[in-house]
């Protein structure tokens, strides 16, 4: 399941609370996900989809990481923020 939060502090609190939690005999994993940019935004055009779920502004540099960093394990969970 994917959950989106308005405030990044809420995201971190949820990840720290849920990652590693055991429910019904299963281990729950929680980590940061990725967001994609709206194709209209990338083309410097106006998005005409009022229900578009993609990003329409640049993300903060401190919240940005590459696919390679994720695959290498550099960004795995909220615990990375506390390291």
Topology:
Blueprint lengths: L7 H11 L3 E2 L2 E2 L11 H4 L24 H5 L7 H4 L1
Antiparallel strand pairs: 1-2
Task: Kindly describe this structure.
By secondary structure, the protein is mainly alpha-helical. Helix content is 29%, strand content 5%. The chain is built from four helices and two strands. The protein has a two-stranded antiparallel ribbon with strand order 1-2. Strand 1 and strand 2 form a beta hairpin.
Low-pLDDT regions: none
DSSP helix fraction: 25-40%
Shape: elongated
Average pLDDT, rounded to a whole number, is 82
Instruction: Give me the strand/helix succession.
Output: HEEHHH
Strands, count: 2
- Provide the spatial order of strands within the biggest beta sheet: 1-2
The proportion of residues in beta strands is under 5%
User: How far apart, in Å, are the first and last alpha carbons?
Assistant: 26 Å
Structural class: mainly alpha
| Alpha plus pi helix count | 4
Radius of gyration: 15 Å
Largest sheet: 2 strands, antiparallel
What would the keywords be for this entry?
two-stranded antiparallel ribbon, single chain, 2 strands, mainly alpha, 4 helices, 83 residues
What does this entry show, briefly?
With 83 residues, the chain is mainly alpha-helical. The protein is 29% helix and 5% strand.
């Amino acid at each position: 399941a994917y959950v989106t939060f308005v405030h990044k502090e809420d995201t971190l609190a949820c990840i720290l609370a849920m990652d590693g939690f055991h429910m019904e005999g299963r281990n729950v994993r929680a980590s940061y996900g990725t967001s994609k940019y709206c194709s209209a935004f990338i083309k410097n055009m106006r998005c005409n989809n009022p229900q578009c779920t993609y990003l329409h502004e640049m993300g903060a540099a401190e919240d940005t990481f590459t696919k390679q960093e994720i695959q290498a394990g550099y960004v795995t969970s909220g615990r990375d923020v506390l390291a």
